[in-house]
Amino acid sequence: MDAALHAALDGYAARWPDELPTVALFRELLGDGEDPFRRERLAGHFTASCWLVDRSGTRVLLTHHRKLGLWLQLGGHADGERELPQAALREAEEESGLAGLRVGDAIFDLDRHWIPEHESVPAHWHYDVRYVVHAGDDEAYTISEESLDLAWRRIDELAADPATDPSVRRMAQKWLAAA
Fold it and tell me: How many Cβ atoms sit within 10 Å of the Cβ of residue 122?
């Protein structure tokens, strides 16, 4: 089953050769004997996120993340799901309340980031695999418990704003470069 993720990492490395060191970290985790798709693996684990774009492809839905206090893409833990595009789609649906979403199979972005200690969970690494998710006709979202707020934001403005979270800004720039 992990063959699909290996192939997706190969495709990502071919599209973004400057990110080969990051791809190598994700390959190393994928080869780990301890299940890296479960959040209980505190040495680091996979998460799945989405770049949820509107029908026009000019806006992205961001969450004001409750725990981190930052405006970020929707996403979360794989929770044992080894098909990360499906985990990203599940997170998009749960966190936005939107129906009719479609997810692509290609990896859009990779981001390894440190998660600070929270309550009883020690600090640890998230290996976030990000996919493009396309909104359907209805863009009226519902704010979940995981968010302080949600907002559709213009991608060109995110790409140009130095105050945007660096990984969100990178995704905005990738999206615009591909357009």
Answer: 9
More confident residue, 144 or 141: 141
How many residues are present in the chain?
179
Tell me the CA distances in angstroms from 141 to 17, 25, 42, 102, 131, one per residue in order.
36, 34, 32, 15, 19
Write the pLDDT tens digit of every residue in 45-102: 999 999 999 999 999 999 998 777 889 999 999 999 999 999 999 999 999 999 999 9
Rg of the chain on CA atoms, in Å:
15
Q: E strands, 32-138, where?
A: 45-53, 59-65, 71-77, 102-115, 124-134
pLDDT for residue 67: 77
Compute the distance between CA of residue 9 and CA of residue 5 in angstroms, rounded to an integer: 6
Assign 3-class secondary structure to 40-67. CCCCCEEEEEEEEECCCCCEEEEEEECC
Note whether 145 and 88 are within 8 A (CB). Answer: no
Q: Check if the beta carbon of residue 152 is closer than 8 Å to that of residue 68.
A: no
The pLDDT score that the predictor gives to residue 1 is 56
Q: What is the pLDDT of residue 102?
A: 97
